Amino acid sequence: MTAELMIGTDLAAEMVAKAAERAAALQEKYGVQPCLATVLVGDDPASATYVRMKQNRSKKAGIGSRSVVLPAETTTDELVAEIRKLSEDPEVHGILLQHPVPAQIDERAAFEAIDPGKDVDGVTMLSFAAMALNDASDPGFRSATPGGIMRLLAAYDVPLEGAHAVVIGRSPILGKPAGMLLLASNATVTYAHSRTRDLPELVRTADVVIAAVGKANFVRGDWLKPGAVVVDAGYNEGNVGDVHFEEASEVARLITPVPGGVGPMTIALLLEQTVDAAEAQLGQCPGS
User: Fold this and answer.
1) CA–CA dist 234, 262 (Å, integer)
2) Domain check: are 151 and 238 in the same one?
3) Does 284 participate in catalysis according to the annotation?
4) Residue 285, pLDDT score
5) Annotated binding residue at 253?
6) Which of 98, 232, 273, 276 is the catalytic position?
7) CB-hemisphere CA count at 13 Å for 137?
8) Residue 121 known to be catalytic
């Protein structure tokens, strides 16, 4: 068996094109350009590259960008103050704090300084609660990577109802919300992580595997049930994911490549949700 690739590039391009149309409509109707503010603390090269990529994609989608770059020695209080300024700025519609942040910063305090109405990366407690409760009356924003994964699974007609999904990873902005969104789609969800006992045996029971553990080539091909759907949400040095791609491709039915799978979907959903936020802040029903 050779797995079919779940490519995110084309679907992401469609999403960005639609976001661009909606952004142009807002510009024409209200004279307002949706704006995404990015906050980067320190000079980590990978983080700086991610921020530039998001800014470039924003420009192509007709979404304005504002960049705030703070020194590595920034304190929690200083970062929170900067984020609150953006939260209070009516010209900013979405806020992205590039993570991880330096060790001295309380990342959760920084996330919670983001106005929930501008939390287009889905990192606040309110957004997590909305995903967990699946409340249609107050949907909040989906965490960008898990939300992108769900769109990709839907595009490839992956049946989730009744399926057993194993999420390897428990990050509050990736693993945990991914499980909540899968549960809302009526999958049976098991959370696992690098310290889970008998992890390979557990993974072999999964119809859908979400790898988000942050370790290169962590999930091996012989861990997988034949015909499983494998989503690699990891990104490690050298363009390597959390799944051993060559091994897994011989067992899985569908698999995401790294790069070109989940990554483009993350950015596309971030931009889409920035336009959603701008529409809501202008009193317009998002997506209408």
Assistant:
1) 9
2) yes
3) no
4) 81
5) no
6) 98
7) 0
8) yes
Residue 59 annotated in active site: no
Q: How many CB atoms lie within 10 A of CB 134?
A: 12
Q: Are residues 181 and 238 in the same domain?
A: yes
Catalytic-labelled residue, pool 54, 118, 176, 225? 54
Q: How far apart are CA 90 and CA 122, in angstroms?
A: 19
Q: Per the structure, how many domains does the chain have? A: 2
Which run of H or of E encompasses 78?
helix 76-88
Taking only the tens place, the pLDDT of each residue in 228-269 is: 999 999 989 888 999 999 999 999 999 999 999 999 999 999
Cα 232–chain centre separation: 12
| Pair of tokens at residue 30 | 């209200």
Confidence (pTM): 0.94
Question: Closest Cα partner for 233 from 197, 266, 189?
Answer: 266
- CATH number of residue 212's parent domain: 3.40.50.720
- 8 marked as part of a ligand binding site: no
* Residue numbers of the domain that contains 198: 144-262
Select which of 121, 232, 242, 276 is catalytic.
121
DSSP letters spanning 215-263: -TT-B-GGGSPTT-EEEE---BTTTB-SB-HHHHHTT-SEE--TTTSHH
Residue 287 assigned ligand-binding role? no
